[in-house]
Amino acid sequence: MVDSRQLALIHADMDGELDGRERAELARCLLADSEARALHEELRHLCSALDAMPKAEPPPQLAAKILAALPHSTRRLAAPSWSQPRWRYAAVIAAALVAATVLFETVKVSEPVTSDGAGTMAAPGTPAIVNTVRLDHGPVSGQVSLYRDHAGLGLALDLVADSPIDVLIASNGQTLRVRGLRRAAAGPPTMGPLPGVAMAGQAINVTFLVNSQEVGQATFRAPKEP
Amino acid sequence: MVRYQKPVFNAALRLLRDPEDASDVAQTTFLKAFEHLGKYNPDFKFYSWLYRIAINEALDVLNSRTPADGISDEEPDGQPGPERRAEGEQMGRAIEDALMRIKPDLRTVIVLRHFMHLSYEDMGEILMLPEKTVKSRLHSARQLMRDQLFQYAVS
To answer: Three-state SS string across chain B, please?
Structure first.
């Protein structure tokens, strides 16, 4: 009968959590006890097989389904605090999801995106442009602007491209990728806020990719608070 | 979402063994995460919080199933299964069967440890359990799976 101490050592070995002394203890135990040895071997096979189980790819339409459902959630979003790095990281993900939704909706419908359709993202009032970078060469052209409104800093993308664009937004040591954005058929520039991404004075690097190849870049510097 | 979509979907898939249910769980997880972002405690890892939502959602789906739904013959990847011949694939199928035959709380620790490769600490954070309890559950889960697989080999 394998006792509880032997069991603990065997399982700890499966998890790579034995120190040198414990490894030696387990080795002695396995040498002396055939039942423990058999159990160790069986569990080792089991753990190897479990660890080797293949990962499935999510359905390709999953992201689109989430994005399509997201605006309903944004209306109930509680206002978070942006003071902690992890908050900021979570906020970056949330901002990108909604920014992607705005773009997605712009493609789906011909009329301009309204503040109602964009949930919490389209701010009322006129945003103040902080800086604008033009992209005049290559497969992506148009302009990208960093703006500020009552909600904080945001990016406005007024771009034309033949293929879906991936956008990498890097700032504050974090990189966010928004995949498969398409050219807006009509309407004003697509705008999405960047809460927590851009701290005062930090660079915001925006990279555009088509078919995983970099096709354009824009760099902004987040201004100090007014 | 890009970063966490696959692990969240796979965790749900291993717990539920149904791609459609797993997809629904993943969708609900991200929507809830976004909706409750204001409740996220930055003292914990973001992925722990997200995975906890996913696990709870998957367990809710499991609880809503009738007992007959517990073990599905459906392939987790949606691919046709009866013709699979390779020994490795048969082993994979046997492991999936064994996994579905153990209790959901034990299945959960197997999924977190062996499919998501999380540490005891992370598992404790996700399940809101002491590491000691996590270890104990994991040991029991492995023992039961080993017994299930032994029965499979005998039969």
So the answer is: CHHHHHHHHHHHHHHHCCHHHHHHHHHHHHHHHHHCHHHCCCCCCHHHHHHHHHHHHHHHHHHHCCHHHCCCCCCCCCCCCCCCCCHHHHHHHHHHHHHHHCCHHHHHHHHHHHHCCCCHHHHHHHHCCCHHHHHHHHHHHHHHHHHHHHHHHHC
